[in-house]
Amino acid sequence: MNIKEIPGIKHTDSGQFFLLAGPCAIESEEMALKIAEKVVRITDDLKIPYVFKGSYRKANRSRIDSFTGIGDKKALKILRKVSETFDIPTITDFHSAAEAEMTAEYVDILQVPAFLCRQTDILVAAAQTGKVVSIKKGQFLAPEAMIFAIDKVRDSGNKLVMVTDRGTTFGYQDLIVDYRGIPTMKKMDVPVVLDITHSLQQPNQSSGVTGGKPELIETIAKAGIAVGADGLFLETHFDPANAKSDGANMLHLDHLSSLLEKLTAIRSVVKDF
If we measure between CA atoms, which residue out of 56, 54, 94 comes closest to residue 74? Predict the structure, then answer.
């Protein structure tokens, strides 16, 4: 697919990478609109094609007392309001085949979580909505294996599919980005996204709360653009320390503009290589 096929996406002729960004989870309408407003302003200035990201529910928390969401329909309606308010596409993850149709009513792109990227019923259900399907590569999978997930969507009658690398398991409590996977997956004729912030997670902490290394966000992002990623995914928040999910590896919203300025400069240099 071509990113121009994402409904409502702007700046697709700028030659820049596209960006999927927003909070880890939808905490309230106010926070979603506040984040979206700032990211839209930045990406419009830099001519970056932009998709707002937010999870309507976090289904894979380490502890049962962790925040999971404000209610599925309530959060999905907020995603729709973001789209309508700023005239931008939206993406959210869903967690079972039964949720695909409901999710597709509110967003433009359905994201298949990394842990679920081999689940045939989920991939087929996403494909059958007719929406763009973004599949995250499992931390446990080789890049070469993603062709089978892609083919499940295509063979279900939907050619609108992209893939996202979010790091590979390295030991028990760390992830590593193998940049060889980006050109490998680009050969599958899909847009390839690098998930910056989740690649810096430190899962399986003894506290039951995932850790992270946000100080390396710029390093990972620069390398991703340099080796040809079509898009970047990152989570951002105006108060990561008090975010209800994944605050340990999110980018502070105040730092987004300077980061994207550097990345667009790199993209301008390498895009014709």
Answer: 56
